[in-house]
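Side project, low priority. Logging it here so it doesn't get lost.
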Amino acid sequence: MNFHRSMAIERETELKFDLSGEPQGVNDACGSLASGDGLRFRPITTADLDDIMVIERSSFGVPWSVNFFRQELQVACARSILAESESTVLGYVLFWLLPGAIDIHNIAVRVDYRRRGIARLLLDRVLVEARRQGTIRVLLEVRRSNVAAQKLYESMGFRTTGIRKGYYSDNGEDALAMTLDLAGGS
């Protein structure tokens, strides 16, 4: 299965987000994007949390708890996008809509589906929403040791804009603050 960024860009207008300022609800329709490989995008629901937790635990040394995900899904400015194929959850991204910015909080892909472009497609969906909202920047933090993620973000135009010393509580590792400036029309 090979997912291409161009496929995502061609179908940008097919995605619909509920951005009414209310928390993203279980019944919110985000629309879906289906490729020839059956990849679809939709919001995360509480019914997805068991699958999300499998990915979360295999992706992070200190994973978010299921209760943290539940709380996150209730925050008024929080949004989520889940990637699935044939009812298999492949990955997800959670982000907040802030005045003038989107702050990406968490992104992960199933171990057996990594390096197939799914994280890039999830990020593309976030960028589509950023542009739709007139957002001028997209922000995130990434572990200094997570070179693969840094390379992905850099390939999408993110630049390191700072260092958060001791950001990660599990081992005191620094985080790189990365920003994608959309004001220049990129």
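Brief comment: The CA atoms of residues 44 and 139 lie 21 Å apart.
Revisit when time allows.
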